[in-house]
Amino acid sequence: MTCIEARGLRKAYGTNIALDGVNLRVEEGRILGLIGPNGAGKTTALNAIIGLTPYEGQLKVLGRNPWTERDQLMRDVCFISDVAVLPRWIRVAQALDYVAGVHPRFDRAKAEGFLAKTTIGRDRKVRELSKGMVAQLHLALVMAIDARLLVLDEPTLGLDILYRKQFYDSLLNDYFDRNRTIVVTTHQVEEIQNVLTDVMFIDRGRIVFDCSMDELESRFLEVTVHPGQTNAARALKPMNERQALGRSIMIFDLKTNNLKSNEGDRQQVAALGDVRTPGIADLFVAVIGNHAQAQVQGAAH
Amino acid sequence: MNTINTQSNVAPESHSDSQVTASGVSAPAVISSTQLMYWSVRRELLENRSIYIAPLAVAAVFLVGFMVSLVHFPQKMRGAFALDAMQRHELVEQPYHFASLLIMGAYLFVAVFYCLDALYGERRDRSILFWKSLPVSDLMTVLSKASIPILVLPIVTFAITLATQWIMLFMSSVVLMGGGVSPATLWSQLPWFQMSLMLFYHLLAIHGLYYAPIYCWMLLVSSWARRAPFLWASLPLLVISIVEKVTLNTWHFANLLNSLVSDAAGAGDITAPGGVMMHPLTLQTVGRYLASPGLWIGLAISAAFLAAAVRIRRNQGPI
Fold first, then answer.
1. Residue A299: exposed, middle, or buried by beta-carbon count in 10 A (0-12, 13-18, 19+)?
2. Which residues lie closer than 8 Å to A275 by C-beta, 6 or more apart?
3. Residues of A in contact with B9 (CB under 8 A)
4. How many of the other CB atoms lie within 10 Å of CB of A197?
5. How far is CA A201 from CA A109, A167, A216, in A?
6. How far apart, in Å, are the Cα atoms of B294 and each of B142, B149, B256?
7. Which residue, of A36, A193, B113, B180, is most buried by count of CB atoms within 10 Å of its CB?
8. Which candidate, B157, B169, B190, places its Cα nearest to that of B89?
9. Strand order of the sheet with strand A31-35?
10. Is the separation of the CB atoms in B20 and B8 below 8 Å?
11. Which of A85, A89, A104 sits opposite B11 (nearest CB)?
């Protein structure tokens, strides 16, 4: 079942175009990472999905129009739109009471269970908690809601690495199952690489790359080329080349170039050096870099 | 195999449940509007404790002052029989009206600051992103916030005033008995029921409903202003008045604003500025109040302001 479906999604702030005809489709049970540089339109896209901003074009989330039906949609959708948005005056127990009061799918016992694993006291005010504890509290509230879609926009910004790791671990172990869908954006791409099932790159308001992690592993290769093989490797047209410790590291897309049959290419490329699956961050740089180059060339012609 | 099904739990009060079918389509679990409203208002009371602390503080300070003033009370009461009705009234009743007047002042003060911050503070501290992640509509949120100055504060003020007056009566009686004077005079001089009824009417009808456009205007400004909501709420009114005076040499707009506040008396108010009741509350007074166009025009304007605030909040994020 389709969880999110967008066609021709557009949004402009004055002359600044934040979303430029985004088409996207997220099936239920996926964990999608939406990756993009600052100002690429990630947050705008997420805000449109959770009904925080109006848009042009078609968008259905769980079959609903998020802009006109936000309050109904929020029974099935949760989001953490930023760190530290919990009201600072509220006490932990009051937050639990309130969410239990207004949310039909909130399981208070479950939230208490998550909180029991932390050092957060029930009678503490949010303003007295550290940033990491606030994130833990927010996650406990959200994970106790039996939602079908969870949207996370930079949920771990400013947290230290222990909290960040813990955050994604609990999300995977205690929350995610095949009936739920998670959409997440973050700048700490490497940390969520193993969490994701799908990845999308967004640049200048457009989706420029869309691929499942399974496909990514079979389709892309990162080769640390043996010193003597550099020219041979370049002949196979890598999509990206960078230098590290005096050696060339190239990323190949087995689907394009003049590489035809997959298994043969894999061996052909593997002969050039040490092979591994590229990290999302490096792939991102390669894809966005090529995208920008193509645009410049397009403009020149 | 459907975990959503087994984990689906609801707040104890609502017996709605979500059934997830094999296709993954769930019937929406619902919490009644009444419950949503209840929790929204309760949320406001948790956040803005000044709603009851400010009137309580004023009442406490007043009671201390009143206690000090009781030193010469038995003496005065002894002479009360020699006074005429008006003077006796002043001696006995006046402090009670003064108490209600002070607490009412706290009410208006709190109402103004509450309204100006209600939809502005949640954007400034970014918590709007949390509130909007819950299934509470903008309409429900704005209505719950509007209910504070229009309904909750009058009731809170009434309860605190009544309690204060009871304490005053109790303290006076004790002091009188200590001074060897029977408190019966005091009790018989106070039209207790009439006084409470009028206070309640006055608070709800005038300070709540009749002033509603003022509160709703301030709520509207607080939903929209990016900074200094107090200035945005007051300066435009001042500027319009002055521009009108300069260009047309008239004061229509200023008079309109003034009448909004002062015409309350004409529309069935029963207390003079000093808080002294002019005439007892009758059905006629209530009728005159309900028939006054000012009330209904004001309520229509309030509704328009609130509708605009709902629309604006829908578009707003943190500032």
1. exposed
2. A221, A222, A223, A269
3. 105-110, 146
4. 16
5. 38, 23, 13
6. 23, 19, 11
7. A36
8. B190
9. A77-80, A149-153, A181-185, A31-35, A198-203, A206-212
10. yes
11. A104
Say which amino acid occupies A69.
E
Assess contact for A152 and A184: CB atoms under 8 A: yes
Out of B9, B43, B318, name the one closest to residue A98 (CB).
B43
Is A70–B137 a contact, with Cβ atoms under 8 angstroms apart?
yes
- ipTM attached to this prediction: 0.88
Give the integer Cα–Cα distance in Å for A5 and A22.
10
Residue A56 and residue A9 in contact, taking contact as beta carbons nearer than 8 Å: yes
Chain A hits for B133, Cβ within 8 Å: 50, 74, 78-81
Is A34 within 8 Å of A42 (Cβ atoms)? yes
Distances (CA, A) of B65 to B53, B99, B164: 18, 11, 12
Token couple for A128: 């007295």
User: Is the CB of A78 less than 8 angstroms away from the CB of B317?
Assistant: no
| Residues on chain B touching A28 (C-beta within 8 angstroms) | 24
Q: Is residue A121 helix, strand or coil?
A: coil
- The residues near A14 (Cβ < 8 Å, ≥ 6 apart) are none
Q: Which two tokens stand for residue B230?
A: 């107090």
Alpha carbon distances (Å) from A154 to A34, A43, A80, B117, B131 = 10, 9, 8, 28, 18
Instruction: Please give the backbone phi and psi of residue A69, each rounded to the nearest 5 degrees, phi first.
Output: -125, 40
Q: Do B46 and A100 touch (CB under 8 A)?
A: no
pLDDT 10s digit of each residue in chain B, 319 long? 433 333 334 334 333 344 443 444 444 567 899 999 999 999 999 999 999 999 999 999 999 999 998 888 888 877 776 777 777 777 788 889 899 999 999 999 999 999 999 999 999 999 999 999 999 999 999 999 999 999 999 999 999 999 999 999 999 999 888 888 888 878 877 888 888 888 998 899 888 998 999 999 999 999 999 999 999 999 988 999 899 989 988 888 888 887 777 655 555 444 444 444 445 667 777 888 888 888 899 999 999 999 999 999 999 888 8
Neighbouring-strand partners of residue B20: B26
Beta carbons of A102 and B136 less than 8 Å apart:
yes
Q: Which amino acid is at A230?
A: T
Work out the angle at residue A113's Cα, subtended by the Cα atoms of residues A109 and A118, and round it to the nearest 5 degrees.
145
**Tokens linked to A28:** 């239920």
This prediction's pTM: 0.86
Q: Do A102 and B16 touch (CB under 8 A)?
A: no
State the nearest Cα–Cα gap between B12 and chain A, in angstroms.
Answer: 8
C-alpha distance from residue B261 to each of A218, A298, B217, B255 (Å): 75, 67, 14, 10
Distance from CA of A213 to the nearest CA of B (A): 24
Q: What are phi and psi of A104, to 5 degrees?
A: -70, -20
Contact B135 A106 (CB under 8 A): no
Six token digits for residue B253: 């707009």
